[in-house]
Amino acid sequence: MFDILIIGAGPAGSNLARLLSKQNNKMKIGIIDKRSLLQSTETTNRTKACGGLISEDAQVELAIQGLTLPTSLYVTPQFFKVHIIDFDNQLEGDYPRHYLNIDRSAFDRYLFKLIPETVVKFEASLVTEVKRLEKGYRVQVVTSNGIKIFETKSLIAADGANSFTRRQLIKTYSGADYFSIQAIYESDQHFSHYLGMFDQSVTDYYGWAIQKDHTLQIGCAFPKSEKHAHLKFQLLVNKVAAYEGINTKPLAFTEGANIERFNRTEFAPFSLKDFYLVGEAAGAISPSSAEGISFALKTSRLLAEAFFLEDCVNTRRRYLRAVMPIKFKLLLKRIKLPAMFHPYIRRIIIKSRITAIPPYTTSHRTKKQTKSV
Predict the structure, then answer these.
(1) Cα torsion at 240, 185, 8, 224 (round to 10°)?
(2) How far apart are CA 59 and CA 79, in angstroms?
(3) Is 202 within 8 Å of 235 (Cβ atoms)?
(4) How confident is the model at residue 253 (pLDDT cuts 50, 70, 90)?
(5) What percent of the chain is helix, strand and coil (3-state, nearest 5)?
(6) Could you tell me if 57 and 152 are in contact, meaning their C-beta atoms sit under 8 angstroms apart?
(7) Cα angle, residue 17 at apex, residues 16 and 18 outer, rounded to 5°
(8) What is the pLDDT of residue 355?
(9) pTM attached to this predicted model
(10) CB–CB of 126/142 below 8 Å?
(11) In degrees to the nearest 10, what's the CA dihedral of 46, 47, 51, 53?
(12) Residue 10: how many CA atoms within 13 Å on its side-chain side?
């Protein structure tokens, strides 16, 4: 029997376990993840298609929580701008961004290692069933030692988009409506920017390309209804290769992930009775950029505070009140969607050069070259 059981050890789950145990070491807390996060490398287990960028909002949240990232998490190069390629309008532009370029798998392992020994950790363990009891929850888990049954007073869903825990307990919720494909290529070329690509013939979302040490990762997000995603993804890769003049072979590996875009009116719930959702499991992810690390860190902190603040009438009420600004922020980002994803409006914005970096006199692409692509 646990007081609190956390399903998922990504940034939201690991950070929550760290904060909960730090504030109260008398509660029995457990955390479950299907990966083996304490291994020195995770190349065989890596499945999360993530750009691996720490946004400015995430940096602020790290500062609030007093966390400093070790240099071992950083990869090269560290960029200061994103280069937008609008294939629909044959336009391009540079915009300032202050992301931290990191190894995402190493970041997950770093946060997991920060969890104190007082927390019971279950690695390489797959949750196969979640049931609500009269008081608390029962969780069935398949481990290397067989099937285990746990009971807990409070249950936390931190298992990302299309959360299995959420789907078991909230049958009416539709879940993730997008997914991403990301290919990792070996590359010794050097770039001066991140790439963001828009192409309606490929997807109604966007694509990206990011250099990490001696690799180049190219990714794109698609609606779940897209039946030819892999063919369209390869089309985008070919366009990027032609545009940047890069060799996309040999392919190291590919990975994928579900994405909660929430470009509709439906919000994911953040809490039910003794059941709480954090990070992307709660739909806390930018619908415009798919950035979710900042929301994972913030929702986990707010929930940890809700469990232990003395002025809280009850945990659920306190948490729902605390996440209201997050819901409002997500709503504002939904309003921003047409400006990014409608070709005509995007054309006006790029041509106006609002917030853009002034063009360098020896731009790496001429207008004629861009149009030829």
Answers:
(1) 40
(2) 15
(3) yes
(4) confident
(5) 30, 25, 40
(6) no
(7) 90
(8) 86
(9) 0.90
(10) yes
(11) -50
(12) 28
> Which domains, ranges and CATH numbers included, belong to the chain?
1-48+109-175+268-341 (3.50.50.60), 53-102+178-259+343-373 (3.30.9)
Helix (H, G, I), strand (E, B) or coil at 347: helix
- In sequence order, the 6+-apart residues with CB closer than 8 A to the CB of 214 are 186, 187, 188
Write down the residue that tokens 């070491």 correspond to. 25
Instruction: Report residue 82: phi and psi, to 5°.
Output: -115, 135
- CA-to-CA distance for 125 and 73, rounded, in angstroms? 25
The tokens for 160 are 């990302």
Say whether 92 sits in a helix, a strand or coil: strand
Which of 67, 17, 37, 45 is closest to 300 using CA atoms? 17
For the record, the structure tokens of 77 come out as 């190069």
Distance, CA of 61 to CA of 272 (rounded, Å): 25
pLDDT digits (tens, 9 = 90+) for 74-109: 999 999 999 999 999 999 999 999 999 999 999 999
Q: 54 by DSSP, 3-state: which?
A: strand
